[in-house]
Amino acid sequence: MARRTRAVRPQDQTTERTLRVAMYIRISTDEEHQPFSLEAQETKLRAYIASQPGWELAGTPYRDEASGATTERPGLQRALTAAQAKRFDVLLVYRVDRLSRSLRGLVDILDQLDESGTAFRSATEPFDTSTPVGRMLVQMLGVFAQFERETIIDRVINGMERKAARGQWCGGYRPYGYELDSATSMLTPVDREAPLIPVIFDLYVNARMGTRALAKELNERGHRTKNGKCWSGASVMVVLRNRSYLGEVYFRGTWHRADDPHPTLIHPEIFEQAQQIIASRGDDYSRRASNSSAYLLAGRVTCNRCGKRYVGTSATGNKYRYRYYTCFSLGRYGKGRCAADRLPAEQLEQAVLEALLDTYADADMIAQAVAATAERRADGQQHVKDELDAVNKELAAAEAGIDRYLTAFESGDLTHAICGPRVQALGEKAAQLRGRRRDLEETLTLADLTAPGEEDLAVLRAGIREPIDTGTPAVVKSLLETLIHEIRVESRNSIVPVFRLPELARSVGQEPSFRATLGLVPPAGLEPAAKRLEGACSIH
Fold first, then answer.
1. Which residue(s) pair with 22 in the sheet?
2. What string of H, E and C letters represents the secondary structure of 314-359?
3. Average of pLDDT values for 434-453?
4. Quick check: 1 pLDDT over 80?
5. At residue 205, does pLDDT exceed 80?
6. Is 232 in the active site?
7. Is the pLDDT reported for residue 261 higher than 80?
8. Given this model, what pLDDT does residue 88 score?
9. How far is CA 378 from CA 61, 131, 322, 390, 447, in A?
10. Is residue 134 within 8 Å of 124, Cβ to Cβ?
């Protein structure tokens, strides 16, 4: 069992032992409005060290200009690292709240100092952290420091609410069309942006343009968003739903309107008409998510040019409505961003269904693909297992990190501004690791694949054909989501669907995939898929 190192007690010093003392100083923001500036803290600490017999200063002070709510401060971390390296014997601060304003953070810091054999002292609050009573007193001071911080936060929030009620901007991204007047903290119109707001509402309400068509119109006219990017349907929707253009200010879930608000850019009646159109069109994303799609391959078609998904679009002629699959980038930003072909929906869906059935009819091709893939992936199994173990450990660490940040946020130790970006980054990392883990697990499984026989494939084709011929669009779409991994589109003449094989997947607990190619050639439309399948099947 590891032996815990006892921290050095400053009062145990003798004439034969000189204690090396390091200083840590901190302010929250700028020094101008701080009761204890960095210079003032350093001056008092140097004088305190000089007054203690047997103490000598160990290097320059460790300093931070950051909130005491978190321990992730560069200067503090350097001090803790130096303590572990035995570069000093005592860490000295002016007050305990300079070290941390969180009880949890304070206890963690004291534990790290104790493990490294380093004592902790406050120049204005005398106690000895090497004794239980001293540690208790420090923790009590930490409680009061945390209470003070939470009280400050409450006062700031209340002040911000009063500020919003007066019509003053409370921070954050300024709406398109406005800039902030630093003298009054009020939004003021921007000459180069404000005139466009009524145009956007007019095109949406009176011209009945959709958000994507409206964005395309704005881009073609040469307009750009506040950060210089092209307009998109989503950015247009942000404008249409923003009540700031009515003179209101948003803070903590509430829109505030002052007696003397900032200048309005749109008439309230036009704004309300726009909200009614948004609701009736289902442009609200919360409603759109629950709408069923008439596009059987929705979410499965991927553009090889830009990596975005194809989405269902339509056009209305003199008599008929025509359905298409259109690359997301093409539909949102135009051909300048992605020049992918627009695909006729009915022809693409029919060709994919034919390719699916034809693929499952060729037992020899599937058997060859299974055998070749199993042989190829069986060669480096240990390497795959080692990587899988490493990915699992890294994923566990990421998920544990997310839990720690969320716990700190819920307890008030971390603010959203600090916790949010870190949790988002860890979440993205965890999602990537989960995807890699699935790939590795599939690789291990595919090494033991056995090809299905002709009878098995015949049963599978019959089970697929029946719902395709007699089922509702929702049933067919659900079936295709199970059987199709993805459809990769390079152009009309290069479309590659990647299929799964459910029967084989159930026997080994996975869903391996098979690939078949089909073509799309003008002017006759889609070429029969069976003509392009020969020799093109392989495990995905």
1. 91
2. EEECCCCEEEEEEEHHHHHHCCCCCCCCCEEHHHHHHHHHHHHHHH
3. 67
4. no
5. yes
6. no
7. yes
8. 93
9. 58, 61, 48, 20, 5
10. no
Two structure tokens written together for 399 = 């998920």
| Residue-wise pLDDT tens digits, 472-529 | 777 787 778 777 888 999 888 888 888 876 544 444 444 444 444 444 333 333 333 3
Q: Please name which of 420, 499, 503 lies closest in space to residue 463, comparing C-alpha atoms.
A: 503
Q: Is 435 left (phi over 0), alpha (psi -120 to 50) or beta?
A: alpha
146: tokens are: 């945390």
* Vertex 70 angle, CA 105 and 97, to 5°: 65
- Give the pair of three-digit tokens for residue 208: 């009945």
Task: Give the pair of three-digit tokens for residue 366.
Answer: 């599937």
Quickly count: other Cβ atoms within 10 Å of residue 187's Cβ. 24
Distance (Å, rounded) from C-alpha 530 to C-alpha 480? 18
How sure is the predictor about 374, in pLDDT bands with cuts at 50, 70 and 90? low
The token duo for 262 is 């900032």
Q: Which amino acid is at 136?
A: M
Pick the catalytic residue from 28, 37, 491, 538: 28
Dihedral over Cα of 76, 80, 85, 91: its sign = positive
Angle subtended by helix axes 196-205 and 233-240, to nearest 10: 100
What is the helix (H) or strand (E) element at residue 93, kind and residue range?
strand 90-93
Distance CA 365, CA 358 (A): 11
- Helix axes of 454-470 and 473-483: crossing angle, nearest 10 degrees: 150
DSSP label of 246? G
